[in-house]
Amino acid sequence: MTEPREPDHELEDRLSRRLLDVFIRAGLVLALVLLCYQIFSPFLTMMLWALILAITIYPLHQMLAARIGGKQGLASTLIVLLAVAVIVTPTVLLGSQFADSVHDVVKGVRDNTLQVPAPSDRVASVPVVGKKVHALWSQAHEDLPAVVKSMQPKLGELASKALGMVAGLGGSLLMFIFSFIVAGIMMAWGESGARAMLEIFERIAGLARGKEFTELSTATVRAVASGVIGIACIQALIIGVVLMIAGVPFAGVLAAIVLVLGVAQLPALLITLPVIGWMWTGGDYTTVSAAAFSVLLFVGGMADNVLKPIMLGRGVDAPMPVILIGALGGMATTGILGMFIGATALAVGYQIFMRWVADNPERTRPQASGDSSSTAA
After folding, report:
1. Distance CA 237, CA 254 (A)
2. Is this prediction's pTM over 0.85?
3. What is d(CA 165, CA 313) in angstroms, rounded to the nearest whole number?
4. For a designed S-S bond to 297, which of 170, 219, 272, 316 qualifies (C-beta 3.0 to 4.6 A apart)?
5. Alpha carbons 108 and 159: distance in angstroms, whole number
6. Which of 318, 36, 359 is nearest to 206 (CA)?
């Protein structure tokens, strides 16, 4: 009988020390990652927006830089100044008009000088809610202070929500402006940034697929951005033309609001449906003209549902349904920013999955054996 071997305590000690060393290093790395994320998290949304804007506008930046002698920094500065002017100026004007309108309404209610016009008889004929709306409208026309007093608790709650929305819009506007500034800095050093992103993808996916995934991610972000902005412009143009032909007051302002809603991925029906209701209740239209304009506005409000499958995913090495599902799913999960992240992530995931399907060893092995047998023969 062979004697049992004694355990190698020296080997066990070395393995335990090595394992403990690995655990300590992994724990320190994890702690460092969590600390870096906690420090960077307040700026994460802004930096993601800046990266998306930089990727989207970079071709325009290169065209402008080529026209001014290759000055990357000057081109970035001009684009940022133009973007800030385009964003801030209309927002300030609309905000000022909105504040003046609210001030006039509050002053009219307080001084009992605000007059509500009498409702049309056609309001009562609207199904389901027509009679209730007509009764409330008539009461407001006859005795507005009593209506305001009876609805004071609801009006206070509505006012607080409106103030919260205005504050949120102001914060979003500032964040977007800072994102544009950071995007300008990224574009000024676009070549080094592109090399850095390529090296990151090559480190993650390998040298063979790193460049492919980098180009796919860039093309997806640009396709989603151009698709969103292009669809919003087309829809705003369609609705604006219909509003002008119909003679709706403030047609240009309403078209601009439709454009903003389209960029924010909100339905244009928020504008077109109230306009349709106004045509049937307060507008001076015949039944035929009101019906024709209502159909055109409704179709224009739903046009984005047809244009999205056509324009999204153009120029991307991934099927259009993948881009569309990724954009819509990401937007439903995390808002507008998720639209870009979702489309990019699903496109990259689709490519990885299809590469895995194509690299089937059982499919390639018979081909290799067939080639070797033919060579031997």
Report:
1. 11
2. no
3. 33
4. 272
5. 17
6. 359
